[in-house]
Amino acid sequence: MTEDTEIAGDEHDAGTERNRELAWRAKGVGFAALDIEDAELLHGWRSDPVTAYEFGIWPRSLTALRERIERNNEDNDRDDFLVLLPDGTPIGHIALSGQNIVNGTAEVELMLAAQHRGHGHGTEAVDALVDLAFGELPMHRLVAETHAENAPALAALAKSGFVREGTSRSACLHRGRRHDLAVFALLRPEWEGFDRPRAWDGIQA
């Protein structure tokens, strides 16, 4: 999980002009199902060097990313969304991956564009996904992992109520260095005890 990178002007314009049907809505953000037409937008985000560092990824070709989106869309154990502001501006990608309905477990993934960091959108997006997982799906435990040095992601997870359970030592190799991963989790009973509005509160059907 990370939050970073820039949106190029052409990609931003293309993203805002598309008429997207929202799959999930909260007060500050909405989720639209990710599709193949979003590949160029995501490719620009993933190619940013800071994102690559904090996420532990390396840029792939646009063709490879399109193929990955197609594979993910066929995977019944994950849901991928584009995060949108109320005016339709795409600001990031969020996913609920590795879903195990029997055990009630899944993993949260998040990547935000650079100019939309620091405004609380990461927390809003995570809160909205958590409400989807516990309010509409039979999840009991959500997990998230991020580089132990990724301060924005660590703060967003903590603000959303995730508890740091430990550290996966030297679990990621990037730029010739081993990095620790911070492991966070959130349980359904903890979510049920939150004193905050749910994603559906104040949203007209």
List the helices and strands and how they pair.
Layout: H1 9-17, E1 22-25, E2 30-33, H2 39-46, H3 49-55, H4 62-73, E3 79-84, E4 90-100, E5 105-112, H5 121-135, E6 141-147, H6 151-159, E7 163-174, E8 177-187, H7 188-192
Parallel strand pairs: 5-6
Antiparallel strand pairs: 1-2, 2-3, 3-4, 4-5, 6-8, 7-8
Helix pairs in contact: 2-4
Reading the helices and strands in chain order gives: HEEHHHEEEHEHEEH
Distance between the termini: 30 Å
What's the total helix number? 7
Placed side by side, the strands forming the largest sheet appear as 1-2-3-4-5-6-8-7
Using DSSP, what is the number of strands? 8
Radius of gyration over all CA atoms, rounded: 16 Å
How much of the residues is beta strand, in percent?
25-35%
**pLDDT under 50 segments (min length 5)?**
2-16
Mean pLDDT: 86
Helix/strand-derived class?
A: alpha+beta
Helix content: 25-40%
Q: Could you give a short description of this structure?
A:
It contains 7 helices and 8 strands; from the N terminus they run αββαααβββαβαββα.
Question: In words, what does this structure look like?
Answer:
The protein has 7 helices and 8 strands, in the order αββαααβββαβαββα. The chain has helices at 9-17, 39-46, 49-55, 62-73, 121-135, 151-159, 188-192, and strands at residues 22-25, 30-33, 79-84, 90-100, 105-112, 141-147, 163-174, 177-187. With 205 residues, it is of the alpha+beta class. Residues 2-16 have low confidence and may be disordered. It has an 8-stranded mixed sheet.
